Amino acid sequence: MVWAFSDGKAGHENQTRGLIAALVRRVPLDVRWIKLPAYATTLASLMTRRFLPGADLPPPDLLIGAGHRTHLPLLAARRARGGRAIVLMKPSLPRVWFDLSVIPEHDNVTGAKVFTTRGALNPVQPGAKRARAGLILIGGPSRHHGWREKELLAQIEEIVRREAKIAWTLTTSRRTPPTTTARLAALRAKNLKVVPVQQTGPGWLPEQLARAAFAWVTEDSVSMVYEALTAGCAVGLLAVPARLRGKKKIQRGVEALTRDKLVTLFAAWQRGAQLAPPSPPFNEAARVADWIVDQWLTAA
Q: For residues 276 and 291, what is the distance between their CA atoms, to the nearest angstrom?
């Protein structure tokens, strides 16, 4: 039995779903989603050892949550009903209070009860790859990266021109500036289809990633980089200006992927480097799930 805790944020829930999906591929599990109780209710649960949101559920083997708001409810539920509490990020509470903290390596956290991953977990899975299908995933300016529209479009135009045998599908994100979206939509190439994020549904990107052989991702879009790798795509990085390169933890993670040849920088591709899919396959959710099953669930 798994109790999954959601704070309502899509990115956090995506991590939880990724781990749960990987666990279910290993062992049969009943999964129940828990809506977070009010803070006062959580405190009362800790004191009384009665966790009302799960009162009618069987006791959990695992309690899983991502996002700071899930941390105290995880502990309250474990105190009331047992099980092992797993948090999918660097917790805001002492790590020793949890049975396992799954933390991306760029946070530089090690020690007992810590499982280090490359990036955040996700539920993406590879599918039947189409050798001539490619994706171009565009992010936008952030606190970690700036934005140079003209240079970005020049990179895309060069990729589409040089890789003329690939059918490219390009999509934007909610951070993409409107001017960039407009200029992307105006690109004219027979092998390029532009699909703005507003025209995509919840399952659109995972489906595209599953079948795409190649994916170019702007460096700011870290979650999409890891999703493309998990999908088994050969991944290239479109250059965007970084703020304080080498000092931000997110950038350190991407730089490590580059050193380990899991991704190819646009400048290296210009010099003749080829995009290659990750080998061995890249699937951090499966790696975490394997550990959990082998350590805690096999003998159950």
A: 28
